[in-house]
Amino acid sequence: MVGTLAIIIGLSTLVFAAILSLFGLLDIITLGVLIVSWNIIQWLISPYIIDALYRTKEIPESENPKLHKMLEELSQKSRIKKPKLMLAQIPIPNAFAYGSPIAGNRVAVTSGLLKTLSMNEVEAVIGHELGHLKHRDVQLMMFVSLLPALLYYIGYSLIISSILNRRREGSGGAAIIGVGLTLFSWILNLFILYLSRIREYYADRHSASICENGAQKLAVGLAKIVHATRSMGERRKEIQNLNAFKALFITDPDRAETDSANIAMAAAAVSGDQRLVQEIVTQRITFADKLIELFSTHPNIVKRLRALQELG
Questions:
Q1: Catalytic residue numbers?
Q2: pTM of the entire structure?
Q3: Nearest 10 degrees: CA dihedral of 277, 281, 284, 285?
Q4: What are the sequence ranges of the domains in the chain?
């Protein structure tokens, strides 16, 4: 879940910063204060934005009492208050945790997840999402993402300002500083991506600790999610128009093609969910896999399943 806040508000903040820069009415400190304030406001209302984009609605307890009971029991084991249970009307099998102080915590499952996984596997997936809430990953990633976001927008502001005022003395130096800040923000983002992947491992570990045979169930669930996402083809590509929120998901939809290549090789040789997972963890991780993971919010599927196997 790298920078949930930054991912949700990135584009709008960029437009906001660009408008302020073009007017040239604000100094850098004021610009920074306004950008941080803008980000915090959007974080507070982000659950409502997510609900609108993913067409999520709260699931009444009378509609799915078994799922509610499961969430209640897992929340008690996690020692956190039961979050609202939401359903996202998208066919991609996935789940995500989100929330804010004014909206409260929420766990959403997609309609595709309920159709793809067994209830035991859904339980492990929900356990993972509760891990994010228990560890306060939304708040943590919001905090660490503010600095690179702020540096990027200040750098962008300096570059725009120097272009508009290129005849003024010192405009060239401002442009160099702006480029430097922008590059530094990208470097920081690589570290934040690494932190995001670490938080996914922690959430996996939490699921394994509160669900019976949780590591085994989650490993099978993750393999099935990645395989089903890839098989959706054109429908998946259409839905990926909303991929600005992919850091919320339990798996990264952008990685479906890459991760599923390992699953496809294993699936050709074995049958059965457990044997499929066993085959996946024996796959070799290439240099290309490591490079792709470097820029990903989620761990490589082979490494992730290996870690779950060790827990099991």
A1: 129
A2: 0.81
A3: 100
A4: 4-311
